[in-house]
Amino acid sequence: MKQANADRLYCLDTGAERAGLHCGMAYADARAFCPDLQTRPADPAGDARFLRMLRRWATRYCPWVGLEGRDGLVLDITGAAHLFGGEAMLLSDMRQRLVRAGLAARIGLADTRGAAWALAHHGEGRTEPGQPLAALEHLPVAALRLSEEAVTGLTRLGLRRIGELERTARAPLTRRFGPELLLRLDQAMGRQPEQISPLAEPPHYGVRLTLPEPIGLFDDVMAGTGRLLDQLCARLKAQEAGARSLCLTLRRVDQEAQTVELRLARPLRDAARILPLFERGVREVDAGYGIDQMRLEATRVEPQPVRQLSHVSSGRADRLDDLISRIGTRIGLENIQRFLPVDSHIPERGFTIAAAAWSEPGGPWAPPRPRPILLFPPEPLTATGTRPPERFRWRRMSLSTARATGPERIAPEWWLPDENWRGGVRDYWHVETRQGRRLWLFHTPQNPGWFVQGEFA
Amino acid sequence: MSSLNASFPLRPGRVHEACGPLAVAMAAVAAAQVSGLLWLRESWRPELINPLGLADYFDPARLLLAQTRDQTDTLAVAEESLRDGALPLVVIELSAPLSLTAGRRLQLAAKDGKTTGLCLIPEGMGSNAAETRWHCAPVFDPSDSTLMRWEIIKNKSGTLGAWHVRWNRASRRLDLVSPAGKRPGPAGAPG
């Protein structure tokens, strides 16, 4: 783990701890202590993800499971222990399963959260109900979740064990260390309550429908989809979210599954508007011997807060979004695009093309000089000289120049490498031919040559 | 004598065709008169409309571009969007001639959606179902560099004609120009 410009140990296993290493130690020092140290870069995000998965697994013991710091779980097993045959059995079951999964865990079980934390971090074990002090007496004061200064201060006073702290007079301690210290002590002893807040389950946007008899007709499948959509949209509405992409899985009697994907131009939670968009995909489904299970899931969800309806609601914008979604089911949503202006003099970089579903119209458009309405990749001409040629052939037409306006010199943007601009600067000319065509020619003086790049109206 | 006004703001609810080197300019002029448009183009084509050039005609923010794989997709999308009616103008770049069925389907879709379709076709590949067909070409004029010649070469409900027109950038308006020594009006019309 890179921290403050130095490699430091982020977390280590019991073997390493026995060898005298500790968390936060510089990597170089650690290697000096322990030459055959094996390290891997830390991945806090991955660890957090794994911890969340583990939290979900832990709900098999009790419904109230929360996260504790960056490497712990806290379970409130009140009223759940007897299901596993008592606290001892629960602990051994949990330990066994964790070991089988290859995880080293330290588990403390106590009447209070504070006591359990102390046991888990400083020697494992379990307290007898109602007598937390018996188990905690010999633990260091650091086990009370105290700040660094408080622990140092207590050590200076000679109070090293929780038992010693418990027997000291309370008033002077409060005066010296503030209420925090005794609050922690009371929490561990059970004299002050402390809650466990379980982590909320992330909302799940999936619904399914199992049918007693297989169906195969288009109308039936659409009716089923409609029912699923109603449920899903109610759930989305409760969470103030809108679906951006949906996936409908149709399982057939012969265990084959077919999916219909739908991507929307705007987050939507209006069942009546989404349902017609499924028509095209559902029509292509091969029902085989019939479909007996349908599952609809919102695979991408975006927040969509509730909005005040007004009489000037954007009916036309909604229609346009629906049209984009519908076309998108055919040619792909990213192929419906809009132009956005870019501040660049390079003709082909004066704009970008962005998918309409993920962008807003931009502006203003202010070309510095008249620009052609058609652009194409440069087409070479056989001509020489720095002035536009009198006569030239282009696309098998022989054209003669009647009027040429220019040059407009455009230099390549050196900060962006571009294969097409290897020829160096370009002198652009607006050439009107006697035959009518008005072309955009350019000459590359550094690498002599003439090209046609566009056509004016 | 027919005037340009009888045929130019393209009749809504129908599909029209434009060919010639400046068919794109005609589409741009038509787009200047509506609130939004969809431009359909096959993604393999090298030419691309330039929004900086189109800004002389209309605000490119009103333009939606749909890039399709082939003409089948183009026609499907065109029919869908013409029928939907959310956008009043659909410009369709075609690379192959339309069959009568396809052309007729587009007409019906435009009629249902009360929208206008404009197909940009290669020269000589018109469809019989089109309401009007225009040929647009630039004309060289010593004093003017935006002069165009628009000619109706097919009209289902009107007469043919040819006009010299000019796009006025400042007022965003189409000006009719009488060529020197000729009258505006149907080509070759006497006196």
Automatic annotation (TrEMBL), chain A:
Domain of life: Bacteria
Reactions listed under catalytic activity: DNA(n) + a 2'-deoxyribonucleoside 5'-triphosphate = DNA(n+1) + diphosphate
Residue ranges constituting the DNA polymerase Y-family little finger domain according to the UniProt record: 205-310
CDD domains attached to this UniProt entry: PolY_like
Domain UmuC, chain residue ranges per copy: 13-118
UniProt keywords, alphabetically: DNA damage
The protein's enzyme class: transferase
SUPFAM superfamilies on file: DNA/RNA polymerases, Lesion bypass DNA polymerase (Y-family), little finger domain
Keyword DNA damage applies: yes
A Pfam family annotated for this UniProt entry: IMS
GO biological process, one term: DNA repair
The EC number(s) this enzyme carries: 2.7.7.7
Record's keyword annotation contains DNA damage: yes
Family annotation (InterPro entries): DNA/RNA_pol_sf, DNA_pol_Y-fam_lit_finger_sf, DNA_pol_Y-fam_little_finger, SulA_CellDiv_inhibitor, UmuC
MF GO annotations: damaged DNA binding; DNA-directed DNA polymerase activity
Role description: Poorly processive, error-prone DNA polymerase involved in untargeted mutagenesis. Copies undamaged DNA at stalled replication forks, which arise in vivo from mismatched or misaligned primer ends. These misaligned primers can be extended by PolIV. Exhibits no 3'-5' exonuclease (proofreading) activity. May be involved in translesional synthesis, in conjunction with the beta clamp from PolIII.
Subunit and interaction comment: Monomer.
Protein name (record): DNA-directed DNA polymerase
Organism: Ruegeria pomeroyi (strain ATCC 700808 / DSM 15171 / DSS-3)
Automatic annotation (TrEMBL), chain B:
InterPro entries per UniProt: ImuA, P-loop_NTPase
UniProt xrefs under Gene3D superfamilies: P-loop containing nucleotide triphosphate hydrolases
SUPFAM superfamilies the record matches: P-loop containing nucleoside triphosphate hydrolases
Protein name in the entry: Protein ImuA
Top-rank taxon: Bacteria
